[in-house]
# Entry
Amino acid sequence: MDMSCCCPYCMSELDINKIKYYVKVENEPSQPKLKAFLAVNREDRHFYNFWSRYNRKLSPETLEKRIVKSLKEMENERTRLAEDAEQYERRMAAKNHSGENDEEIRPGQGIDNTLSDVPSDHFVVCEIIKEMKNRKPTQFTIREDGQRIAITYPVCPSCYNRIPEEIFELPLIKIALAASKSGGKTCMALSWFRTLNDARGKGLNSHVSQMDFISMLQDHLGMEDDFGKMLQKFNRENICPGGTHKQFIPPIFLKMNWHGKQERQALVGIYDAAGEVITESQRDAELVYYMKYMDGVIYMIEPDRTGLKKGLTNQYLCIRNEDIDAYYERARMLSVEEQSSVQARNFKFKKETLAQIMNVRDGDMETFRENSAMEVLTALRSYVEDMKLQQMHVALAISKCDELRSNREIAEYNKGNLFFMDEEKVDNNLRNMRNLAIRKLFEEKIFNMQIFDNVFKSCSLHMIAALGCPAEVPADSEKKGDWEESRESRLTGDFNPIRVEEPLLELIFRYAEEHRWNE
# Structure
């Protein structure tokens, strides 16, 4: 049995016999010796050092709660507590035998003099229970007078991040989300988890009988809390998260059951990189070093970066999803202040795409399509060398595709409303027609696809919407400052995602095919 694998955080090799343990204290111990064992070792800075490299500010509370022990330390403490309990039992047995229940047994009365260290009154039995698991790391539970006060979780010995205990028995399929800044990657992942068991027939567990998924989000365990907190706000209050602010985001995990000729299970690790890191990765290469270990990449392209005209959709001019003629009827000139604001926000984007804009003005659409493709490919190449890209499956997805409903350029491809049809009405024949139509749209209007086909192992194409409705920063004056600082937004319509699960499912199918799961 292979007992080694890779840490999903630092990508270092893991050995099940050399892992360490994060001790989560649930109740404060009363015994001094146990208190000393469960004290934070301030010399252990692996966890702090790892996250500091990725611009992560760790709260003092987070660090104070982190107690990490080696297997040897856990075993030694377990032995010590067992010896203390045994000495106490021997002491009580000796008292009962001699009838001296009220007097302390002194050295030389037939009991080893080390027992004098064990107090006779109010002795608290402390124990560490060891639980062996097949193909999983050993688990320890610490008890005091029968009450559980702490439990252990496996951590990587290099970076001290908590690792899923199933990582030694199941393959880990690593999928990265990539896009430019504000590409909607985090919203995509939130949408997956929100619709995981959607009764309306949307989401990961809805349309594909060959696999089903279980969320592995855990609460109150450290860095893993971040996504869970965002998901809670998203589910309860329809609040979308702000930007990731140039940070490495902890991966989130799904457990997948595969129903093929043989039943299989796997972990799916989802990696969400900050958009600024993606576009400036040559300066921040360390923040995306993990990309070369990915099995697949979902690259999201906003409608603004496709060359397709979605209409006048900024906050001053548009009403979303109306006919294009209605846009122009409502249009007005921006004030000087408004123009300055728009230019300041879009200066970087304009600088990046100036050459493309000039090409379009010259009528050279072929060059525009090639430049658009190279923009995506250059972003991927900046942190993954071609040799690795040639081993990767990539899913290119136009995000926020609902903004293109009224676009006249896609009308000839969207016959019968193929792109936005209710999924319950789509059979395999319509699904194949839609896939062909999306590829034709990409090839003729958006990208020179040959560029991607020459580099990636496979390249699938998708049109998705993680939300399927607008989201805006609230105008409430009392909250305005807080919202602007975090850049959070709130849904202003009904949450109605469009095929948001499709790119992830496609990459998993590719992985299964490559590893011959259907044979």
In short: The chain has two domains: 4-165, 171-318+370-514. DSSP finds 15 helices and 17 strands in the chain. The radius of gyration is 29 Å. The CA atoms of residues 223 and 507 lie 27 Å apart.
